[in-house]
Amino acid sequence: MQFDTKIAVVIRTDLQAWQKLNVASFLTSGIAAAFPDCIGEAYEDASGTKYHALIGQPILIYGADAAALSRALDRALARNVVPAVYTEDMFRTTHDAANREAVRAVARTDLNLVGIGMRAERKVIDKIVDSLKFHS
């Protein structure tokens, strides 16, 4: 199936495995919150057990160093794409309000980004993540 939009998550490659998983989880929750229409129907198995709905389209995960991650953020903002962000400071907080304060305390150019997530038209996302490779 071809989607009109694309979801991309860009994660800094020098993080520990648990940090990468944490960042990917938080960023995709931001996409789901911003775009409730991307959520599919709830699941149910053949036994009748019910499960939560998921995002209904593929999520592409890219890896980047700090410079490439900042460049992707700049490209997104230049194209009027509002991304979800995760900064290194957020690893030291314990709740959502503290996460927002950690981001609010730093100017955009000084954010110590570890990941961004975004959903936009396919061609727009392709321009934002141009030259990035899938995370391995």
TrEMBL record:
InterPro entries: DUF2000, Pep_tRNA_hydro_II_dom_sf. It comes from the Bacteria. This is DUF2000 domain-containing protein. It comes from Bradyrhizobium forestalis.
